[in-house]
Amino acid sequence: MPVIEVEELRRTYSSRTGLRRSAKKDVEAVRGISFEVERGELFGLLGPNGAGKTTTIKMLITLLLPTSGRARVLGFDVVADAREVRRRIGYVFGGDKGLYERLSGLDNLRYFAELYGVAPKEQGPRISELLELVGLAGRERERVEGYSRGMRQRLHIARGLLHRPEVLFLDEPSIGIDPVGARELRETVAALVSTGTTVLLTTHYMFEADQLCDRIAVIAGGSIVAEGTPAQLKERVADGHVVEIEVYGDAGERIDAVRAIAGVTGVAVEEGATSQLLVVRTSAAAQVTPAVLGTLDGVRLGRVATREPTLEDAYIELVRDV
Ligand SMILES: Nc1ncnc2c1ncn2[C@@H]1O[C@H](COP(=O)(O)OP(=O)(O)OP(=O)(O)O)[C@@H](O)[C@H]1O
Ligand SMILES: [Mg+2]
What we know:
Helices cover 33% and strands 30% of the residues. It is of the alpha/beta class. It folds into 2 domains: 225 residues, P-loop containing nucleotide triphosphate hydrolases (Rossmann fold, 3-Layer(aba) Sandwich); 85 residues, Alpha-Beta Plaits.
């Protein structure tokens, strides 16, 4: 039995705008999505801002009622059996508030253990085990006000795990965390999955998703536009190569001309501080580099490189037209 089963799940937010009651605006945040997550899997939900990821997670953790459709976690319906679901899951939102600043990390965990009904004689060993897991062992007696953002986030994860949830929902856990902290966080999540916990995670960092996720659903405009392993998603654009060209100065309307070259399947422009990076995707056998460089004749160029497609390329391709 899958640990998470989502069938045609839908959520519409209704909000009244303006003074007149008739000025009603509906936002279809989630438009009938379906997916399943198996036990022990690390499942990623990727998508642009406003795609419906947080709304989906809130329905799964019973904080928000679906407008229609159905979802079950560990076999329990998120509406009819909300209590049963809640007892068995944990969740952490990125940039989460809710730690007690003046208390030590240890006292925070003791407090929440009490709140979550962890049996008193289990609390000590459970907390030690979690401090170890999230890499805060040795720092637990310091006050949280002196913790870095990464340490706080790891403390949040420990908090979310106190009652031994079988499923953990992480909504952008690495937001605002520096590269070293984010790497440590990924190690924590990977360690967690290796102990058998099922994890559903959202992130905007594609390399993070690539590294961590067993499977990914890409959601855009409230619908799932693709689903598969990172390798499968990459295959969608991997029948070709990616040519990256550093452009100094204005490539302007030349970009449309690059798009029109036979064999070019997509062009994206990434703005840098002093240059632009032109990311040109090509189909299988196409040798487009000479044609692209010809089109850019007269524009000052920097580095030109060919590489294999990444998950980010696949992602941009998938959400581009939505
Ligand atoms: N409480 C609310 N009332 C009205 N509309 C909402 C509410 N919460 C979210 N929305 C809208 O629903 C849509 C989906 O939002 P959601 O927060 O689920 O997106 P998301 O994928 O989590 O985005 P992000 O990557 O920015 O976190 C957006 O259009 C958003 O503006
Ligand atoms: Mg969100």
